[in-house]
Amino acid sequence: MSLADKVNRRFHAAFGAEPAFIVRAPGRVNLIGEHTDYNDGFVFPLAIDRAAYIALRPRADRSVRVISLDMADDQSFDLDDLPRPDETRWVDYLIGVAWALQRGGYPLAGWEGLLAGDVPIGSGLSSSAALELAAARAFYCVGGFNWDAAQMAQIGRAAENEWLGIQTGIMDQMISAAGLEGHALLIDCRSLETTPTALPATTSIVILDTGTRRGLVDSAYNERRTQCEAAARHFGIAALRDIDLATFSKRAEELEAVIRRRARHVISENERTLQARDAMLAGDAEALGKLMIASHISLRDDFEVSSPALDAIVDCANAEPSCYGARMTGAGFGGCAVALVRADDTTGFVRRVGAGYESAAGNRPALYVTRASAGAATIDV
Question: Among residues 55, 239, 248, 366, which is most buried (max CB within 10 A)?
Fold first, then answer.
């Protein structure tokens, strides 16, 4: 049974009727372009075939009630008296989206629904963005406002940054809102311009979940962000996307060593991401794979956001002849890596890398092939 079918049936059991709408918003995996989004740079994610689903119907009043199957929890809130969070719960993401929509002048109406998802929480695959965009789509269904993917992505980011106080860039929400079936999306995080690009033919994308979850990631993320901002101020630019690698190299010694490494990662990663676009347009899987490998090395050595588990699973993947390249994905310190693999050896690759990583790390991973899916939408069941 698909997850869409499941929320449909469970909604009927909980509310005694068919849902009026079922909405879906995907998680994401980022092929390349890590920690560049909050530097106004370039990222290259794809929306994955794992998502958050909400089955819902309108209410006559101004309240929202949502049952979460995954959390075994039932929560309600009043749109005219949104409760500020004391701690971050799953429902606070929905409340934050309602707050951001109201602030933006969007008409809101009450609804009741049932929520379930299959994006692993804490894995670096953006389960939070999937939840935010599913909530935005639910409010769209009952509120009657126009849906604009970029604007809804900004709503999701505002909910996370300003309501919940979690500092993120725009990539996760943007790809969940605007993903395109069969394509990765080059996103300019300053203009929000997107360029859909097909993956090289006869390749597969494999997500490599280390089975570890991120520790201390929020404080480390904020520290990296502050370091990048310090480097941009030193060069008198708005963000690190405004300096090229050649210019940076001439002036790099002006920076303190740690800040220099952080800036070098971001600036070189932006260049790699644009080169990845060219490689994909040319259908050059080998060139794309080499860029992914270089990205991981930079994240490991210059940005220092990898982990022993991530390094181990990336090394196992890159040792496989059928792997063009692998790298960590997401904020780092645990979670997932991503590999570009020759499609005709995907099954063998998954089996061998899983066994090799478990032997090396003593931890059982979860490896699965994914495909590029569409962004947030209302679906038929």
Answer: 55
pLDDT tens-place string over residues 145-161? 999 999 999 999 999 99
Which segments within 189-322 are labelled E, that is strand?
Answer: 194-198, 203-209
User: 375 and 47 in contact (C-beta within 8 Å)?
Assistant: yes
242 catalytic residue (yes or no): no
Please provide the DSSP assignment of 251-262 as one string. Answer: HGGGS-HHHHHH
Give the model confidence (pLDDT) of 62-120 as tens digits: 999 999 999 999 999 999 999 998 888 999 999 999 999 999 999 999 999 999 999 98
Q: Of all helices (H) and strands (E), which one includes residue 55? A: strand 45-58
Whether the pTM exceeds 0.90: the reply is: yes
Q: Give the pLDDT score at 222.
A: 86
Rounded to the nearest 10 degrees, the angle between the axes of helix 127-143 and helix 171-178 is 50
State pLDDT tens for residues 300-315. 999 999 999 999 999 9
Closest by CA to 231, choosing from 251, 216, 206, is 251
Nearest-CA neighbor of 130 among 227, 23, 245, 221? Answer: 23
Q: Residue 236: left (phi > 0), alpha (psi -120 to 50), or beta?
A: left
Name the one residue in this structure whose structure tokens are 């994308």.
Answer: 205
Q: Which residue has the tokens 């979460």?
A: 68
